[in-house]
What does this fold into?
Amino acid sequence: MTTAGTPPTPHTGPLSGVRVVELAGIGPGPFAAMLLADLGADVVRVDRPGGADLAIDPACDVTNRNKRSIVVDLKAPDGPARVLDLAERADVLVEGYRPGVAERLGIGPGDCHARNPRLVYGRMTGWGQEGPLAHRAGHDIAYIALTGTLGMIGRPDEPPAVPANLLGDYAGGSLYLVVGVLAALHHARATGTGQVVDAAIVDGTAHLSSMIHGMLAAGGWQDRRAANLLDGGCPYYGTYRTADDRYMAVGALEGKFYAEFSRLLGLEDPAPAHGDWTRWGELRERIATAFASRTQAEWTAVFEGSDACVAPVLSLREAPAHPHLAARGTFTDHGGITQPAPAPRFSATPTTVRTGPARPGAHTEAVARDWGIPAPPTGERHDLVTDGD
It folds into this structure.
């Protein structure tokens, strides 16, 4: 939906013309809103006075790129009304409060839909809108722990390995919220009726393990760590230390790829152990010994250009310089910050990093003008800052 008088900006992504209100939070909500902004949506982040409780300079928070920001005190007498003015003109609203908080503030789904029945109201939580834990505090690690996914990761003789907050917050949370919002937006455009999207990290993370549950039911997956084909149990699907204390990643699952891998690694007569899981321990030791004999750079050169499915394990600072990622432009530099470029890619409506992180309150006047809402009195704009973009 594009409001009259504000035609979409061309060539800024497939969601050009879509208006999104983001109620400021931390973690998966801002990332989901960033993805919508990367895809071309006009995302207005409603920041709270004082900013978010994060130990990061707002100028470096790339999850706020491609957005605009205003500051609203939701506890002030006119705070909820200002958000409802935005919701009336928006296609999507995203919030990440605990269940019931938005309703108590007067900006819940009922309040917003009374002003705009077409609105897609996206709710991002860890536990979901109902259930025994719905009102409990939590973070990524607790959500993925209960879904069984955390228990899959790591060595069997060590505690489960923590996959940063990528698996729960962003894969099980943000991406499912965006999928739900886009599906609901499609429905709203077809029917004129909006709805609430309840995106819970526990639901999304559990959904990610669908294939594993199928393998478990079929007897093809053991319910313990490092005992299976894809969890590090298989010796030709895992990581190995090199002579310089770096690592190589191996994913030579198929027979032809494994044959290439074993040839380049210098394994002798590997075929019997490849197909016999009772000899996986022996095979793993042989592979580990081989990798420990050379540096990461040497092994990278050995496997260069092959179909052995082997790659060096790079650090965050190293990754952007890898020749393949550099050639694709997987990372980009904007405002002095190296960051992942928008993804995925579109042939007709390309995306880009248009602006750096939105500074809190930097776009108060521009949003009021472009969205046709009243600007706050000058005396209330003490949070306004100058945005360099």
Observations:
- Residues 344 and 351 are 9 Å apart (CA to CA).
- DSSP finds 14 helices and eleven strands in the chain.
- Confidence is low (pLDDT under 50) at residues 1-11, 382-389.
- The longest strand covers residues 42-47.
